[in-house]
Amino acid sequence: MSNPEPFQIPLGITLRDDARFENFLSQGNELLCNTLTYTAIGEGELFLYLWGSDTGCSHLLQAVCHASEPVGRTAVYLPLDELNGLGPGVLEGMEHLDLVCLDNLQCVAGDPHWEEALFHFFNRIRAEENQLLVAASCAPRQLGIKLPDLASRLSWGVVFQVHGLDDEGKVLALQIRAKGRGFEISEEVARFLIHRASRGLADLFSLLDRLDSASLSAQRKVTIPFVKQVLGL
């Protein structure tokens, strides 16, 4: 394990406590999840690229960071959509960490300053033989990277497409999410949300959080009539 230099995680960037392997449904992504469990303990590939839209990439990157903690590895999660305004200087020194997880790479693709900084960061972390995990909404060749050297670097690693859940999987995911927050929803309520409110998993989770808060305030169970009332359906 490397000896990292002091570094500071940008203000406001924290891991979601519920973003763990234990509550991620691996349906269709079994090989990827198995691979990432090895990444978390410092084994396997030095560079992995994950892509998918609303398929849980952010959850998985944070889960890897959580799983790195018990084995004493230094890891950081950097969502580039939130850090874009701070500039690429936030990458300085990060190569000394055992694992760096860069999320939402598509948000800085095409920006010459970010692209050059990412290229040099890629070289530095590779020289340190530390691990880099990157996630984006699309495959490397569809990112629109302008810097040829960076585009070639992104093709060096193992690329995984993260597959989304079918409706049955989304029902189960909603029930697991609700249970983790201390309440329960029926299969009927979960299906109602999927078919009447939103089909995107991130939106569904946000709706579930909203329903949880509303049910606590009203001291009512989350039923279909209650969902209709809260969401104005």
Features:
9 helices, 5-stranded parallel sheet, alpha/beta, Rossmann fold, 233 residues, 2 domains, Helicase, Ruva Protein, domain 3
What would you note in describing this structure?
- The chain has 233 residues and is an alpha/beta fold.
- The chain is built from nine helices and five strands; from the N terminus they run H-E-H-E-H-E-H-E-H-E-H-H-H-H.
- A five-stranded parallel beta sheet has the order 2-3-4-1-5, sandwiched between helices.
- Strand 2 (75-79), helix 3 and strand 3 form a beta-alpha-beta unit.
- The longest helix has 18 residues, at 201-218.
* Count of folded domains: 2
Question: Share of helix among residues?
Answer: 40-55%
Give me the CATH architecture of the largest domain, please.
3-Layer(aba) Sandwich
- By CATH reckoning, the class of the largest domain would read Alpha Beta
Largest sheet: 5 strands, parallel
CATH superfamily of the largest domain: P-loop containing nucleotide triphosphate hydrolases
Please write the string of helix (H) and strand (E) elements: HEHEHEHEHEHHHH
Distance between the termini: 54 Å
Strand order, biggest sheet?
A: 2-3-4-1-5
Which structural class best describes the helix and strand composition?
Answer: alpha/beta
- Helical region count? 9
CA-atom Rg in angstroms: 19 Å
Uncertain stretches of 5 or more adjacent residues: 1-6
Average pLDDT taken over every residue: 90
